[in-house]
Amino acid sequence: MATPRNGFLRFMGAGLRGIDITRRVVLDVIFVAIIVIVLIVIFIPRAPPVPTSAALKLEPQGMLVEQTPDPVQRAMRKLLGQPIQSVTRVRDLEASLHSAAGDVHIKLVVLDLNDFSGGSLAQLERVGRALKAFEKSGKPVIAYASNYSQGSYYLAAMANQSYLTTDQGLVTMMGLAAYRNYYKDLIDRLKIQWHVFRVGKYKSFVEPYTRNDMSPAAKQENTDLLNQLWNRYLNEVAAARGNKTADLISLVNHLPAALEDAKGNAAAVASRSNLVDGVMSLPALRTKFAKVVGMNQHTGSYNQIGMRAYLQARRPEARRANRSWDQVAVIVAQGDIGEGSAPPGAIGSKTLSALLSRAQRDKRVKAVVLDVDSPGGSALASDHILQAELALEKSGKPLVVSMSGVAASGGYWISMAADKIFASPSTITGSIGIFGMLPTFEKTLAWAGVHRDGVETSPLADFGDPLRPLGPEEAKVFQQIVDHGYAEFTGHVAHYRNLPLSHVQAIAQGRVWAGRDAKRIGLIDQFGDLNTAISAAAKMAKIERYGVTYIAPRLSANQKFIIRLANDPKLQSISAHLFTGDASYTDSALAAFAPVLNSLKRTLAMHDKRGIYAYCFCTALSEVH
């Protein structure tokens, strides 16, 4: 029997437990409310204000791209504090400069090129034209960096003024080069039999697996191409800076002597040669900018707004204005071509075909521009994409292709049927050729003491087995498939480009052409960039008032959440503290082997059900670092 005292204690205990439960519930509710408020503050879109007098500060990072590769994976790596390759979209730079030219609040553009690596010459030219168009508004562009690479210097040369920020700085302008690693000796040591089937005298992608050096044909082709690009680079830089091209060539060819005269001071050489307007420290530059736009008392620096914030502030107005208009759809085709689905930054036949189908079904879309920046890949995947393009054109909607830095091999396959093709004189295109590769490892296995034997119902029952020798009948099958693919490729080019087949066969052979020559031989229609292609597409569709819609793979709500989370500056600093470790040793150790690893990775990643590829060693040729 419970005593009154024990009953009282039980009552008090129950009461205290109730209070504790209530306290926990209240605290949980408060915690959840705080989290909700934080998320609302972070994720509700809010356009940042543009100062009444400000500099638009452009800080391009890494390489120029048409499309940010795999944004979800990049966001995940960023949240975990893992390194990601910095990139900057060309169209973001163009859009911000175009808007700022007519914006009374923007008084100048500051171009910080310290973390900019470069891009293809065609992409650099697009940004350069946008800078020159901005200057026509009467407002200056001022560029600076502690050191200029060839890619970053191209943009600096387009500015009204360019500076080095230290006496230890230099302008790297030494020419273009294209080198590859060759694996024949390694393959022989591993006793791998690397079988290659190709059509085209210049189809040199397979050479690293069959040779220890570059073939004379490939050297001739690459030399001609690089000379064209280098001369164009020098001419444009010289014209922008008011120099003579001959003087720049002399400087590049006699740089040791110029440095000796300046006692090793590369910054002095750059100033004397009128590559830059001088050396000016960052504090002095900030003071110079503040005289134009005023000083921000809170930051202690000049009034400024970054590109991302500026686009966020100005783009909603454009979207509201364009929503009810007819649309020209832009679809980006960037990267290697493979079968199936692929994230942005690569081209999957299923993914790109679905985007073309979306544009075809969308009643607001009156024309489509395909923005191609690809060295090719799977021949079968390229043909699947071609069929989707033909279906779009059959629906009555014009298809225009805008070639960026590279649109060669499979990249040209998905371009050739367009109603009109635009490219830059420095675009790399063509490479109309086909190849197949099949390594077999029977000698490797035998060396290791492994032997293979069995039976089959017919001579080709185990066709393509990499663990046994490739028989003559199999080799004949492979070569016939490659020959047929080449005949189909050249036949399509002749048909869609309205060229004699004999002419196409003469200019094909896997040869790569610069845009200047590609126009002469009929592979492209006109010189022009993406904006030119968009205008032409609208004209072909007979629409005068139109908006531009980028059609891309749809992201799920979770994916959008992850991307916004990763791009929020408040959370970036938190994740950096939580996850970032010292990876400097690993990064530096791998950097030396990056070209080898990337080459092998690219070869292994290509997957065509037949093993037949339309691919070009072009990306390295097109990039200016």
Notes on the protein architecture:
The chain has 625 residues and is of the alpha/beta class. The chain has a domain at 42-171 and 276-323: 2-enoyl-CoA Hydratase, Chain A, domain 1 (Alpha-Beta Complex), CATH 3.90.226.10. 49% of the residues lie in helices and 18% in strands. The chain contains 26 helices and 25 strands. The strands form six sheets. Strands 12, 15, 17, 18, 19, 21, 22 and 23 form an eight-stranded mixed beta sheet that branches. A five-stranded parallel beta sheet has the order 7-6-4-1-11. Strands 3-2-5-25 form a four-stranded mixed beta sheet. Helix 3 packs parallel to helix 4 and helix 4 packs parallel to helix 5. The chain starts with a helix and ends with a strand.
Annotation keywords:
eight-stranded mixed sheet, 18% strand, alpha/beta, 49% helix, 2-enoyl-CoA Hydratase, Chain A, domain 1, 625 residues, globular, five-stranded parallel sheet
